[in-house]
Amino acid sequence: MSSIKDYARIAFRIVDPDRIEIEYDKEKDLLTIYIDGERYDDVEPIKPFPLSNPYYVLFRSSITHEDICVVRDMRKLKEDQRRLLERILDRRYFVPSIIRVYDITYTGEYYICRVNTDKGDRTFKIIGRRNVYRIDNKIVIVDIDENIYLIEDYEKMDRRSKEELMKII
Amino acid sequence: MEVNLDLSDDESIIARFESDIGVDGRYGVSQLIITNKRCIVCDDRGRIVNSIDLSSISSVNIVDYVGNSELKLILKDGRAMHLIRFTKSLRREFNEAANLIENASSTRAIISNQRGEQERTSFKMTPLLFVLRFALPYKLALILGIASGIASIFLGLLPPYYLRILIDDVILGQRREQLIVIIVIIVVTQALSSMLGAVRSYTLSYVSLKVMYSIRVNLFKHIMRFQPNILDTYESGRLISRITDDASRVNWFLSWGLEQLLRSIISLASVATMIFALDPRLAMIASAPLPLLILGVSMFSRKARWVYHYEWRRSTDVSALLVDVIPGFTVVKAYCMEGYEEDRLKTKLNEVVKAGLKSTILNLKFFPMLGFAISSATAIIWWVGGLEVLGGRITLGVLSAFISYVSQFYGPIQTLISMVEPMKRASTAAERIQSLMSMEPSIKDSPKSIDLDIRGWIKFENVWFGYTPYTNVLKNINFEIKPGEKVGIVGPTGSGKTTITKLLLRFYDVSRGRILLDGVDIRDIRIESLRRQIGIVSQDPRLFNDSIFNNIRYGKPDATPEEVMAAAKIALAHDFILEKPLRYDTPCGEGGGMLSGGERQRIAIARTVISDPKILILDEATSSVDTITEDGIKKALDNIARGRTTIIIAHRLSTVKDVDKLIVLDKGEIVEIGTHEELLAKNGLYAKLWNTQFQEKPIETPVNP
User: Fold this and answer.
1) B-chain residues near A72 (CB < 8 A)
2) Which domains does chain B have, with CATH numbers?
3) Which tens digits make up the pLDDT trace of A55-83?
């Protein structure tokens, strides 16, 4: 009888951030990674828990879909490696963090949200609570076009923003 | 009933059961007495009509007929004996008797049949006092709130008093210098009254919200102590209603009703004192409408109860229709029944309108009369009081103060009248909460329950079970599964396959017989210990409105991210999860509604896999996935099932043909046990089912023109 713990250890190799080297293959828009000198080509970095654990990265072969390894906290990678990975992941995961909510108005059909995010100001529409999810302290908003916005911590928002957000949460 | 049993020295009575059918087959009395040696049946005069040695009994059955049942013995020599008859009302008791006879030589405590969860209907404490118990931790705030309310009443009595001084002494007495003093006093009094009102509102609201919180948490915790069989007694909607609606009604009583009740009574008493002190004759006139009001209130409340209930039921009819039709929107559209549903809704809405008008008419019959009685009394007071002032018997100030008090006198009366109906509702809600809270689960750990590290040896010994006492779903089930063995349970729909797993998980207790796990009766294993080691994937998995990650981790709350992904990988869910934009953080929606049936099923499998169960139950686990996915999941489950005792319940026989042993059920009985090949060779029910599913179609011979 193999326990889930044993199977997890085999299926998802946890790699020490110091032991991994990352190279970017610009043409394929994929990575080549080296773990203790062992080379893996055509690797795609994936955030399996993009909201609840955003620094957790899974490296997966884009050809065989084999899970090669995981890095539990990409912030612990060597500086140049971290920056390279962040740049690639930033493009793949565009989830702006809402810093302020200017106002939320209701048109009878949609809620129109005017917000300030870490990527700039944005106006988007949602239908209602169905588009708003809570994951721990975080609030995830998916607009009608399936763009995703994140509120890292509702409690830390300013008073005005919280009052506006009360209309949709 | 005196019975001379003539017991031997080493014979003692274990139990007596009285039947409501006599030995002559008419309503009457007969008795079954079970000793440690015999079963004895006596007639209504205590004469022994039958006596059987326990040692000669092979098996005990209860046979159900129309309107009555009988306890039937099969003796070791093969003879059948009809021991005693009883009506269905005593079915449960005689089920225990059958248990007892069967286990008479054993020292095990007799387990009663599934009685369901019985509600108590009479209590030592009145329902509203019962809910007030929850306010005890906040008694200081409650006292402060009520005290502020009462203080504000007394403060409210001051302005009319100062009004009299203002008119008689200051204005008519031309005392200009006192004008500002009186005005300031009146303003300060009003300000204090407002402040006390605010304190009252806040504290009572605080207490009521806290109490509602405690009631809801306690009710939820209490319900969670029960087993799923509580849903046989209560529908889930009724349980939800107790936590939400009933708690809200009790909240009304605490935040508003209780204080208003006390406030109105105190206010009424104090204002009455004031008006009688000011002018007893006018006070008598003011009190004149009271008998009429009391009579009216009692008549109104009697009628209003039914009218309001009628109106409420019509509204719930509309809700029920919408709850039924809106989720079935696709069916309505597919059958082009929009017009039909619209008509149904119109009918229900018309009934709401009619019921609403009925209650409006009732209100109109009563409240204008009340208003007229009050206005008439006030007019008479003005008339008589005016004559008194003109005659110089009382001052204008006294009359003004009196009129001001009279308006305060009728206010509480109106409040008390309007409170009759909601108080009744709050009291009913409190009663419902009290009755649920007083209920005890029928299946729970006993003091001797133990934690068991399960190896996975399962044995069903003479197991009988029925969801109701009248119908046995499982009859005399006997089988054994060795640790690590993979067993398939098959049979036609309704043969009792899933019931076996429910008994193993102890969602219900057996009516007779016992289930052993590693040689220990499951009733002697702590329920949590038992269930933590049994994993089940059912045919209709329920996911919670949370992320995929949290749904999988439900099976092991401290699982690492790798364990969650590994479980998903085993369940072949990892790939499709990674294709979703939010990956493992993707919300599943209510009941998993934002995922497809196959996705839900695979996440449910992952949830079971992560819990690392010692015994794995797959109840039609792959029924909602396509055959390619099913094949993949089967391989994955084979991997995780290796070394674990696994029970697979399946309709599709192809999914279980490779198991170590197949148990074939039919109408609650085991009809065959063996391997796939053995059962095919036997050419019994299994072979018949197999052939039905996999019968080769005759090859069609092309016809040459």
Assistant:
1) 561
2) 13-112 (2.30.29.150), 127-437 (1.20.1560.10), 446-533+616-623+649-695 (3.40.50.300)
3) 999 999 999 999 999 999 999 999 999 99
Match 């009697």 to its residue by tokens.
Answer: B302
> Under DSSP, is residue B274 helix (H, G, I), strand (E, B) or coil?
helix
- Residues in chain B with CB shorter than 8 Å from the CB of A3 are 612
Give residue B585's identity as a one-letter amino acid code.
D
Lowest mean pLDDT among A158-167, B47-56, B628-637: B628-637
| Long-range Cβ contact pairs of B402-406 (< 8 A, separation 24 or more) | B402/B275, B402/B278, B402/B279, B402/B282, B403/B378, B404/B159, B404/B160, B404/B163, B405/B157, B405/B160, B405/B271, B405/B274, B405/B275, B405/B278, B406/B275, B406/B286, B406/B377, B406/B378, B406/B381
Residues in chain A closer than 8 A to B567 (CB atoms): 4, 8
Residues in chain A: 169
| pLDDT, tens digit, 9 for 90 and up, residues B337-392 | 888 889 989 988 998 899 889 888 887 877 777 778 777 888 888 888 888 888 88
Single pTM value for the model: 0.69
- In the chain, the amino acid numbered B29 is V
* CA nearest to B91, candidates B71, B105, B118: B71
Distance spanning both ends of chain B, measured CA to CA: 91
Is B584 in contact with A12 (Cβ distance < 8 A)?
no
CA closest to B546 among chain A residues: A135
Q: What CA–CA distance (Å, rounded) separates B406 from B398?
A: 12
Give the least confident one: A99-108, A155-164, B176-185, B516-525: B176-185
Taking CB atoms and an 8 Å limit, are B566 and A146 in contact across chains? no
pLDDT digits (tens, 9 = 90+) for B497-537: 889 999 999 988 998 899 999 999 999 999 989 998 998 88
* A103-156 per-position pLDDT tens digit: 999 888 889 999 999 989 999 999 888 788 887 778 999 898 888 899 999 889
Residues of B within 8 A of A1 (CB-CB) are 484, 642-644
Q: Which helix (H) or strand (E) holds B455?
A: none
ipTM of the shown complex:
0.91
Q: Give the nearest partner residue to A50 out of B570, B574, B585, using CB atoms.
A: B585
Nearest to B648 by CA among B630, B669, B629, B626: B630
Q: Tell me the residues of A at the B interface, defined by beta carbons under 8 Å apart.
A: 1-5, 7-9, 11-12, 14, 46-53, 56, 58, 60, 65, 67, 70, 72, 133, 135, 140, 146, 148
Closest residue of chain B to A54, computed from CA coordinates: B585
Residue B575 CA to residue B598 CA, distance in Å, equals: 13
